[in-house]
Amino acid sequence: MKDLPKYHETFIPVLETLRKGEALRSREMATRVRDNYYASLPQELLEKKTKSDTNVLLDRVSWGKSYLKMGKFLMYPQRGYVQITDKGKKVLEKGVFTLNHLQSDSDFISH
Questions:
Q1: One digit per residue, pLDDT tens: the chain, 111 residues?
Q2: Biggest CA-to-CA distance, the chain
Q3: Strand ranges across the sheet with 24-25
Q4: 18 near 82, Cβ under 8 Å?
Q5: Model-level pTM greater than 0.90?
Q6: Sign of the C-alpha dihedral, residues 11, 77, 93, 71?
């Protein structure tokens, strides 16, 4: 991969990072996703900032997390923390989860 992932391309890495079921601080989860899945990207991409001076990669991971929560694949057990749900674990069993999968999910649609 030579470019930053789109937010929906972070779905599986986010779920994999939370696979064990423990609640993680959202920032810790995003950092683990970056370090475990995208560390091989060029340094300038890893450090790329948005106009509002946030890290682009961590921002996209955060958006991925938000969309997964809308579909009830993740939950926020307390403020600032994120945790996988049983529904999220079922996605990992399949190993594939795209934007189309999310957009056709009944929980996401009814959100």
A1: 579 999 999 999 999 999 999 999 999 999 999 999 999 999 999 999 999 999 999 999 999 999 999 999 999 999 999 999 999 999 999 999 999 999 999 999 998
A2: 39
A3: 24-25, 81-84, 74-75
A4: yes
A5: yes
A6: negative
**Token duo for residue 4:** 């930053």
> CB-based burial of residue 63 (10 Å sphere; 0-12 exposed, 13-18 middle, 19+ buried)?
middle
Q: Which helix (H) or strand (E) holds 14?
A: helix 11-17
Tokens standing for 73? Answer: 């694949």
Q: Which residue in this structure is represented by tokens 């450090």?
A: 47
Which tokens is 6 given?
A: 């789109």
Tell me if 63 sits within 8 A of 54, measured CB to CB.
no
